[in-house]
Amino acid sequence: MVENFDTLKTQLNQWNGRRRLRDGLLWVPRGILTGLLLSAVLATLSRFRPLITNDELLWWAGGLMLGGLLITLLVVLFQRRSLLQQAYFADRQFKLAERTSTAVEIHEQALEVPTVLAKQQLNDTLTAVQSVNTIQQLPLEIERRDWTIILLGILLLLLAWYLENPQSAILTQQRTVNEAIAEEVAELEALQEEILQNPDLSSEQQEELVQPLESAIEELEQGNLSQEEAVATLSEAEANLLELGNQNDQSDLQETLQQAGQPLSNNANSQQFGENLQNGDLGQAGAEASQIADQLPQLSQQEQQELAQDLAETADALAGTDSELSDQLNEASEALANGDTESAQEDLQEASATLQQRAQENAAAQQAEGAASALSESRQDVAQAGQEGQEGQQGAEGEQGQSGQQGQEGQGEGSAQGQGEGEGEGSGGQGSGSSSSGLAGGEELGSGGAGAGGGSPDTVFVPDPIEINELSESEGVDIELPAECISNPETCGGLLSETETEFTDEQSVVPYDQVFGDYRDSANEALSDEYIPLGLKGFIRDYFSSLEPDG
After folding, report:
1. Which residue in 49, 61, 59, 40 sits closest to 166, CA to CA?
2. Taking the model in full, what pTM does it have?
3. Contact 292, 352 (CB under 8 A)
4. 3-class DSSP string for 103-115
5. Helix axes 341-384, 534-546, angle to 10 degrees
6. Are 126 and 7 within 8 A, CB to CB?
7. pLDDT, tens digit, 9 for 90 and up, residues 193-250
8. Measured between alpha carbons, how far is residue 484 from residues 480, 493, 495 in Å?
9. Closest CA to 183 of 240, 230, 251
10. With contact defined as beta carbons under 8 Å apart, do 336 and 308 qualify?
11. Are 86 and 16 in contact (CB under 8 A)?
12. d(Cα 214, Cα 211) in Å, to the nearest integer?
């Protein structure tokens, strides 16, 4: 009895294995098709949005199809079925009229029947099982339609990989910009740490210098900044640091001290103090001033009078540069001249503290200028990120534009009277050209100044706020002249009798370095506004980058 049931159990297991193989042949291509369908959706989306490149599409497609295959195999091959479930399948598939399921239920004592009947039922089941043609009744078939669709899908994916994706260049540029931003964030963090570790700065100065960097890092780490917004963020931090550098700049004081410290350097009792002042070493000069204050009681009256005279000369030289330090040195000089050594000591100690403060301010200015310089490099790196591939196309367009511009300049030389060539005014130098105020000066500069080779000319043309084109578009007011004015204009004032204005060599120029910063800051501020079309932001950025002055 038991041996007969083991025969049935073995047969059921064999049928279940063949069932797995049949299901595998059926569902494996469908799993691959699922991954292929997801790949097709991804390929379609990548044509409209910068998601992945063509090469990455192949990797994604291969991964998705492999994932669909593995999931299908796991479900099909490792799905567990009980012996009773296998019997139900055998009854349905081979039309055994519930013989195998009944035999299993009797064996598992789910049905209570007499032993004789159970034996007869099992023998009948085995007889029916032996009559089953497994190959015919449970065939292994391959769905050619599914594999045909898979083949066609793979061919379409290969076609999508072969055809150029217009979003790939945008995606590559975005990734390059993001990488550049990440690198600049790391540099800003290192710069921030450098400021915090500078022993020459007070805690207030460190906090003041770090604040622009912290703001820039916070904005750059948002992860959704465009290239223009990142450049504007770095430009704003650079401008703030430059402003801090200008506020703490002591270059005028150091320059004045080169001459102002000479009287003290010629005095044996203040020689080191004077030399430090002349060398611009404000911190050491402050320490020397404190030391001189401690030594005043040890000086003779004549030495005090000589020192008073030297301090007075130094104070007079500093009067127009640092009034506070000048007053302190002058008060020390007067106290020494009057024999008030104690007051002179206090004044020199105050002068020492002022010099130490100036030394800190000078260190802050140097640190701010260095940080601003680093930010300038970071800004240029971010602005140039992803532009390498476009240089060839822009260069070709630039050559065409220059040849066209040269042709226009050749036609306008007569009306410009030859002045555009020297002053950068071009055919519109006399106000009669058709160029707009914004790009006219830039194009002139590009041909003779910063635009061509990165240099900066001494001056730049500043057009008038109101252009002739603007005047021509405004509505005028009609007036009627008296009849006598028409017949005799001289009787109606000098205006009607004047001749046409004869232009000579009028110029409207200012130093280039003075105006470029304002232009650049205005452009960076405007780039952060959403109303500027994205297609024009790149041109604006490239335009002002080409005009960047050296140094």
Report:
1. 49
2. 0.51
3. no
4. HHHHHCCCCCCCH
5. 130
6. yes
7. 989 988 888 888 889 898 998 888 888 888 777 888 888 888 888 898 888 888 888 8
8. 12, 12, 15
9. 230
10. yes
11. yes
12. 5
Question: What is the C-alpha to C-alpha distance for residues 102 and 90, in angstroms, rounded to an integer?
Answer: 12
Dist CA 421 CA 448 (whole Å): 9
- Residue corresponding to tokens 């260049």: 169
Do residues 311 and 329 touch, judged by C-beta distance below 8 A? yes
Cα separation, 52 vs 39, in Å, equals: 11
Count of residues making up the chain: 551
Taking only the tens place, the pLDDT of each residue in 308-333 is: 898 999 989 888 888 898 998 999 88
Determine the straight-line distance between the first and last CA of the chain, rounded to whole angstroms.
102
Give per-residue pLDDT as tens, 78-119: 888 999 999 999 999 999 999 999 999 988 888 888 888 888
C-alpha closest to that of 448 among 393, 508, 394, 406: 406
State the amino acid at position 550 in one-letter form: D
The DSSP string of 306-372 is HHHHHHHHHHHHHTTT-HHHHHHHHHHHHHHHTT-HHHHHHHHHHHHHHHHHHHHHHHHHHHHHHHH
Distance in angstroms (rounded) separating the CA atoms of residues 290 and 429 = 62
Can you give the residue ranges of every domain in the chain?
A: 2-162, 169-387, 439-463+506-551
Contact 310, 270 (CB under 8 A): yes
